[in-house]
UniProtKB/TrEMBL annotation:
Keywords: Hydrolase, Signal. This is Sialate O-acetylesterase domain-containing protein. Residues 22-250 form the Sialate O-acetylesterase domain. The keyword Hydrolase applies. It comes from Rhododendron simsii.
Length: 362
């Protein structure tokens, strides 16, 4: 009996990741989601930063609808008419697993194609049908579609008509997709574009930042580094973006993240000793961090960077101290409200400790 049980356990332990239930994530949009990090003059430099490396728990749905070990470039057999490079997908998956090692297998479903407008993703189009077909194939192998990561809109900034129609088309696309995937509240995390080819960027950004659909989150690409082509995110910017997307996704789930584990903080010895935050009442923390700056018209305005750092700080405090959860939740609410008031994307960035350290508020 004992041997039999051991065999079952052993069989489970060595069963390949591809036969396990997966946490499925759809990756869609245009070039910056597909990934051009490290591509110059049509050649990818092959550089994969540490956070974007392969992981036995991360799979990719190949173009032929089979699961294969995931590695950059994730879109190499999908966005086939161009040279694909590093995108946000691997760093997203690795950040999720770093935060929640009990998560299991992450299955990435690349579907992004460079240079595409939102009108090309309308229900019934080639891109839309391919997205739905690949999502279905991914789920049939066992697992749940956890979210779609969406980064698109740059190509809709060129014509005023496209920019004007963007909000309506985007909402319709999200609603159709949720309906066709039979997942009415599928979480969608989109990226607000930071600059673009065309003059109508603000119209598109406004649509992205103010989209009024439940379970649609937005992270802001503003401030991320562009490559020498002045067109695409660099490898390191894509890696950073993946972390931001992971932070945003994790915020949609209730804590504690780790399976069955009590929400105990990590031992403080794992933290840099220079960063030993004191517990401050939320009002003091907020006052220190949300330092209003004055814009040209003399009005007070919050810096998105400050809000981003603030989100990271709250996590840091929670991880490093015995600060009551409720304190951090209250402060998070405060940030969310500030974001709404200032029309900046909710800027929570998961575990981005570096930003907190840069803020240097303590
Ligand atoms: C890319 O092509 C341009 C124009 O042909 C050239 O000036 C540049 O040196 C090339 N860059 C690299 C890294 O090969
Ligand atoms: C499907 O594509 C993957 C990745 O290109 C390849 O390794 C695999 O052999 C293919 N499988 C089939 C059945 O064609
Ligand atoms: C690649 O180019 C071919 C020929 O122009 C076109 O038929 C095909 O749809 C393109 N594929 C993608 C994924 O853009
Ligand atoms: C890539 O993303 C950046 C940041 O949002 C944006 O400025 C740029 O226009 C995008 N590039 C393309 C080709 O879409
Ligand atoms: C200054 O900030 C206020 C409040 O956020 C805003 O309404 C106004 O448009 C800003 N003015 C400029 C010139 O940025």
């Amino acid at each position: 009996m004992f041997t039999f049980l051991s065999l079952i356990l052993l069989a489970h332990a060595i069963s390949p990741a591809s036969s396990q239930e997966k946490n499925i994530f759809l990756l869609a949009g245009q070039s910056n989601m597909s990934g051009r990090g490290g591509v110059t003059n049509g050649t990818w430099d092959g550089f994969v930063p540490p956070g974007c490396g392969p992981n036995p728990s991360v799979l990719r749905l190949a173009a032929n609808l089979t699961w294969v070990p995931a590695a950059e470039p994730l879109h190499k057999d999908i966005d086939v008419n161009v040279t694909a490079g590093v995108g946000p997908g691997m760093s997203f998956a690795n950040a999720l697993l770093a935060y929640d090692p009990g998560l299991g297998v992450v299955g990435l479903v690349p579907c992004a194609i460079g240079g595409t407008k939102i009108s090309q993703w309308v229900r019934g189009s080639f891109l839309y049908d391919q997205l739905v077909r690949r999502a279905g194939a991914a789920a049939r192998g066992g697992g749940k579609i956890q979210a779609m990561l969406w980064y698109q809109g740059e190509s809709d900034t060129v014509d005023e008509e496209d920019a004007e129609s963007y909000k309506g088309r985007l909402e319709k696309f999200f609603e159709d997709l949720r309906s066709d995937l039979q997942s009415p509240s599928l979480p969608i995390i989109q990226v607000a574009i930071a600059s673009a080819q065309g003059p109508f960027i603000e119209k598109v950004r406004e649509a992205q930042l103010r989209l009024d659909l439940a379970n649609v989150k937005c992270v802001d690409a503003k401030g991320l580094e562009l490559g020498r082509d002045h067109l695409h995110l660099t490898t390191s910017a894509e890696a950073q973006l993946g972390g931001m997307l992971a932070g945003s996704f994790l915020r949609t789930r209730p804590r504690p993240i780790k399976n069955n584990a009590p929400s105990s903080p990590p031992p403080s010895s794992t933290l840099p000793s220079s960063a030993n935050p004191r517990i401050l009442p939320p009002t003091t923390v907020v006052a220190q961090l949300i330092r209003p700056t004055v814009n040209e018209s003399g009005e007070q305005r919050l810096e998105p960077g400050v809000l981003r750092g603030f989100g990271a700080l709250l996590d840091r405090i929670w991880a490093a101290t015995a600060a009551p959860r409720v304190l951090c939740d209250a402060a998070h609410e405060h940030v969310a409200e500030a974001c709404r008031r200032e029309h900046v994307a909710e800027a929570f960035v998961g575990n981005h400790l570096s930003e907190f350290l840069e803020l240097n508020v303590f």
